[in-house]
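tool=predict chain=A
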Amino acid sequence: MMRHRLDDHPNKRPRAPRSAVGAGVAAALALLGCMAGADQTGGPPPAAGLDAFRSGFYAFASTSCGMCHASAQAPFFASRDVQAAYTAAKALVDFANPTNSRFIAYAGNNHCGVANLCGPNSGSPAIVQQDIVQWANAETSPGSGGGPPPAALAYLTASMAIPPISTLPMLTAGKTAVLRFALSNLKPGVAPLANAILELEIVAPNPTEYRFTNPKIGGSTAVVQLTGLHVLVKPSAVAGPGGEDPNQGDTWDAISASIRVSTLPNPLPTTPLSMTPLDTRAIAVGAYSSTGALNDTITVGFDVLQ
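tool=predict ok
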């Protein structure tokens, strides 16, 4: 079975006859939550576990199971809202024994009546087992609160709420929104940047992805050498600074640039600053929240500022 990332095909779902999935399947799947060892704990999810879920099992489930389990039939482990899907799926997995997951059994028992999706020869059980094991490893490994961990980054900005993705300009709109971080809140502080700001431009190329461009730092009172810029995103309910997108969000990790002395305009414009960006490449980061009720947050980290 071909496996696709969600952001490659955000609106595509495989078709299946609705008559193939009866009420008996819904009842059987509902019993999954009662299996021994299923995780029923609450509280904010660890960022590393959520990342592993999104890039692995969720990428499979959203394309292969979404015609039923996105919104039509519980459990909603393929919901378009990643955090809601995570919560639904986590209740059905025993992370101490991930290979015994009922998800693996259902991936090959032809319960949906579409043999190439969930038949015994579909290849789905092997994919699901790999994804569930990787997810379990992320949930149970030390330091599962997100990556790279804060200790790996020498400097961190304060966290900022990302506007709901539905309100951001689309990629084809010909304009961007701007996010600005006051570097007076940088931890630890850097004296020449005490009154400076970091600016990122942001658009939404599709309903499940952010695209960041043109990182700029204005208002420095001395030349500062910057190495490594890391964009960390997480759901607002998750503790910590968040993690980098493991698939496509690390392009700026290798930035090495000089922050030049500059004066910020007063007042600041609502449009992007007119100055040379630190890097001209774009990075894409998967969104966790697709609704206004569950906004994501962003933190930016640096390896070196000297």
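The CA atoms of residues 210 and 285 lie 5 Å apart. Confidence is low (pLDDT under 50) at residues 1-42, 143-151.
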